[in-house]
Amino acid sequence: MRVLILGIDGYLGWPLALRLGKRGHEVIGVDNLYTRNAVREVGSDSAFPLPEPEERIAAAKKILDVNITFYRADVKDYEKLYDIIQKHKPDAIVHFAEQRSAPYSMIDVHHANYTFINNITSTINLIYSILKVDPTIHVLKMGTMGEYGTPNYDILESAFVEVEIKGKKDKIPFPKWASSWYHWSKVYDTYNLMWANKVWGLTITDIMQGPVYGTRTEEIIDEKLRTRFDFDEVWGTVVNRYCVEAILGLPLTPYGKGGQTRGFISLEDSMQALTILLEHPPNQGEYRVVNQIHEVLSVSQIANMVKEVGESLGLKVEIQHVKNPRVEKEEHYYNVESKILPSLGFTPKKKMKDEIRFMLEDLMPYKSRLEKFKHVIFPRTDWRKGRS
């Protein structure tokens, strides 16, 4: 299978390229390296030093015998994206080329606008490029469980749901109530892809994934093959952030009451799930929504887990709840239906507690590097201020 990964330089894009290449698939990647620059913009950097893309690709060839074709390009450039798709005619395209940080989108009007322009433009460009080259190409778009919000009912694994209003029944897209400009941009991506499926019969997997954590996959066997690892308050997911706080002797910082509950999945299990979905595409012309989570935990439960594992490794770890900079429910119902991935053979291999130990062990040698970024770990982006 020939797979084009848009956003190959990212936390998920790079290990997915290694996984697919190792399994014998042909991999082409596109990235404009925006995330590297945006992370530096907020005063942070990846915990692990990242070689330039060309160096990473050379290392993948030398260490894993994996060949990757790379283009340094912006997916907002329709002509460039079309040319790449036309040249390689992939069987599947993975769409990771989006601004992926909720806090980043909430900094001010400029960051909000960038998030919408980048994410929606890239998706529309992808739709029209596929229409022009080959409408049978399978699109795997990375959505987010955050599109749904935290409703007081089960989150079904369904694109549509039947409703009744004043005695009249109809089907509508499954309700979504996002919690940041980033998450709303993902909702609109979903609607745009659903529309493209309805009008032109495009084949789409829209994967709603929970927060991903971890430093390792089966292919990351050398320092030169590491994926990026973000930990600051803008770009770092909660598990990754806690682990760096533990390494630096900073208190772990659950926001507010700490009852915010989500479905988490390890980096390794995410790679397994994404690979399964690519190797088992939906029927031609089908729009398939997939909920991808593993362990459902609150941010306080995760903090206690990091504290326990950290102390077993000789770290002194404290927990200090801080004012929540976000606008979100801090205690809520959360139950997610997930049937498609198990039906395709997906079996999660990793438990968060075990992975936290590996994460701490992998991060410890970089403590002096992490020390330089202490000032960007605690929350600074207040979503209520709405700066312009």
Automatic annotation (TrEMBL):
Q: Which residues form the NAD-dependent epimerase/dehydratase domain?
A: 3-291
Q: Which InterPro entries does this entry report, sorted A to Z?
A: Epimerase_deHydtase (IPR001509), NAD(P)-bd_dom_sf (IPR036291), UDP-sulfoquinovose_synthase (IPR053578)
Give the top-rank taxon of the lineage listed in the UniProt record for this protein.
Answer: Archaea
Pfam families, per the entry: Epimerase
Which protein family is named in the record?
A: Belongs to the NAD(P)-dependent epimerase/dehydratase family.
Q: Which NCBIfam families match?
A: UDPsulfquin_syn
Q: What is this protein called?
A: NAD-dependent dehydratase
- Organism for this UniProt entry: Saccharolobus caldissimus
